[in-house]
Write a structure and sequence with these properties.
37% of the residues lie in helices and 21% in strands. The protein is an alpha/beta fold. The strands form 3 sheets. Strands 3-2-1-4-11-6-12 form a 7-stranded mixed β-sheet, sandwiched between helices.
Length: 273
């Protein structure tokens, strides 16, 4: 069996489009775990109508965020009597899937079973494939899109295939420390530290429609609002979450320099620079 973990929150039309793409897949041996973090727009009910017996819904109250939602999915899988060779697919709903998305991911995983297979991103307008995985420059505290010659350290969880036995070996997510942004990078970097590889192939791709929610620019905001934004889970640069990411993912010899850089950057952000 193939289990699809799909965190959602109040994007009924987007989620419905994703589920319709699942119904078009050439592989139909799947069960969708819809991790609904407090939606009030009828998302879960709409998905149940579309998938009937192929869906289980977990309901939160709006405080799970991305890392917490995936943590709930990990816990649910652990309570089921599923085989170690069963495949878990983690995806976001704001992507378009080709009809062979599941079959391509399963094929890659069968070729290299002790790995994570991560989808590339296809541009909707040009069709050009782009890398989605990341390299890490620990010395300069930089996470950048991996170049062909660089070692991939971590990856987003917008289209990941992994066997349950390997997912269990990596362990759960850590939403108390990293609730949203960086939670997937911490988890996948943990996988590479434990000897797993991250594989990418042109056969496996998605078309992302990047989420427009969250904080993007705090310059010009009053100080109080700027501080609230800076330490919000919606902000990708949240210094508390970056600090946790560094301590959990960086070699100890780089902790001081990386945390110093984050501290200096935080002071600049507070001052509106």
């Amino acid at each position: 069996m193939n289990y699809i973990l799909l965190p959602v929150h109040n994007r009924r039309a987007i989620t419905e489009a994703f589920v319709c793409a699942l119904k078009r897949q050439t592989v139909q041996d799947f069960h969708l775990l819809l991790i609904d973090d407090g939606s009030v727009d009828g998302t879960a009910e709409a998905v149940r109508k579309l998938l009937a017996n192929q869906v289980t819904v977990l309901r939160g109250v709006g405080d799970w965020w991305w890392g917490g939602a995936l943590h709930q999915g990990w816990l649910w899988l652990g309570r089921q009597s599923i085989a170690g060779d069963d495949v878990v697919v983690i995806c976001n709903d704001d992507v378009d899937l080709p009809d062979d998305f599941l079959s391509s991911g399963l094929a890659l995983l069968s070729e290299k079973p002790d790995a994570l297979a991560v989808a590339k991103a296809r541009d909707a307008a040009t069709g050009v494939l782009a890398e989605t995985c990341f390299a890490v420059d620990y010395k300069r505290c930089k996470v950048t899109v991996a170049k062909p010659e660089e070692t991939v350290i971590c990856a987003p969880t917008r289209g990941v295939f992994i066997h349950w036995k390997d997912m269990r070996r990596i362990g759960d997510f850590r939403p108390q420390l990293i609730p949203h942004y960086l939670s997937d990078l911490e988890w996948t970097s943990r996988a590479t530290r434990r000897g797993m590889s991250i594989i990418r192939d042109d056969r496996l791709w998605i078309v992302p429609h990047h989420d427009k929610t969250g904080v993007h620019d705090m310059r010009g905001l009053p100080l109080g609002r700027r501080l609230r934004c800076l330490f919000s889970p919606k902000y990708a640069g949240n210094p508390l979450h970056w600090g946790a990411f560094i301590l959990l993912s960086f070699p100890p010899r780089h902790w001081v320099s990386a945390l110093t850089r984050i501290s200096v950057w935080t002071v600049g952000a507070v001052l509106g620079r």
